[in-house]
Amino acid sequence: MPVFGALVRVRAAYRPVSSDHTSSASGAHTDVRAFVRGLFSHWNDVVHEIQHTRAVEGIRGLYRGSTVAFVQIVGETLLSFLVYERASVLGSTLGRLPHWVRVTGSSLVLTLMDLPFEVVLQRCAQLLSRDELRAPWRLYAVPGLLPAVLLRKVWTMGLFLVFPSVLFPRFVAVNGDATPGPEGSNVHTLSFSWAHLLGYVVWNGLSLVVALPLDCIITRLATQRDTQSYAQIDAEDTLNTPVARDAENAPDGAPDDQGEGASHAPPAVLVHLRPSGRPYTTMWDCLTTMLAEEGPTSLTRGAGVALAALLLEHAAAPGQ
């Protein structure tokens, strides 16, 4: 949770490139060097965000959204059990289908189930408006978000199910003995291969070329809001601050008790989001706008963390 929250803040931050930099004659070469140099340099930004959140909000701020994540994990585990456990009615029925059909179908269903949870978790860096809390299904209507999430899932699962099985064997090979064991089951041994592991890591790194920009786009689409939502959140924030409540309830003519010893609420961890005057309208609009306003490095934030997450996601894929 601390790493996830910090990664969201790093990707959601709006950092436009100055016009002087983009208009310079050596701008293209500078962009390429900055892109290569900054590909894995955002790990320091993630660590800094974790430290900043800990200093401002404490441990509670680091684990904001843990309840939502717990509900999400329980739902995913339950669905995986129903699909892959042959003892269940659904598992015995789906067991007749090809393996890749079951994995792909369950992954797409999980993606649709997870979308509201993912948006809520990513927006924990800010606040959800009351309308969004009352009607979470509205999060499916965030412009461009659903296509980006589905494309990301199809890309990662497609690469994992089709190409690695053809090009790279599993880095843990199963050697089966045709002779049944004492209890009637075959004896299997596991053998480790560094070559297969290297191929697995390289292939996941190549798949990150598409998955990483999609992750950054998904974060931007999930954290943006329209002008009405910004106004509602700002109004609720103002009314809920201790200073605003004290000023509202204080009698006329009362002295202003805001000296050095007055207690103030700790400053919120704010993410400098893109101005809401022209929100992203589609996934493609988000991609082109980020490239035009912030450069290619805006699509590579958190590459090291994303590669580690992709390796774990594929290694722990259900049914594998």
The fraction of residues assigned to DSSP E strands is 5-15%
**Strand order within the widest beta sheet:** 1-2
For the secondary structure, the number of strands is 2
Shape: globular
Which series of helices and strands comes N to C?
Answer: HHHHHHHHHHEEHHHHH
In short:
One of its GO terms (cellular component) is membrane. With 320 residues, the protein is mostly helical. The protein contains 15 helices and two strands.
Can you walk me through this structure?
This protein has 320 residues and is mainly alpha-helical. The protein has a single domain (2-163, 203-242, 272-315), classed as Mitochondrial carrier fold (Alpha/alpha barrel). 63% of the residues lie in helices and 5% in strands. The chain contains 15 helices and 2 strands. The protein has helices at residues 2-12, 19-23, 27-37, 43-62, 66-84, 89-94, 99-123, 130-134, 145-161, 163-167, 194-223, 227-240, 242-249, 283-294, 303-315, and strands at 172-180, 186-192. A two-stranded antiparallel ribbon has the order 1-2. Strand 1 (172-180) and strand 2 (186-192) form a beta hairpin. It is globular and about 55 Å long. Its main location: membrane. Residues 234-264 are annotated as: Disordered.
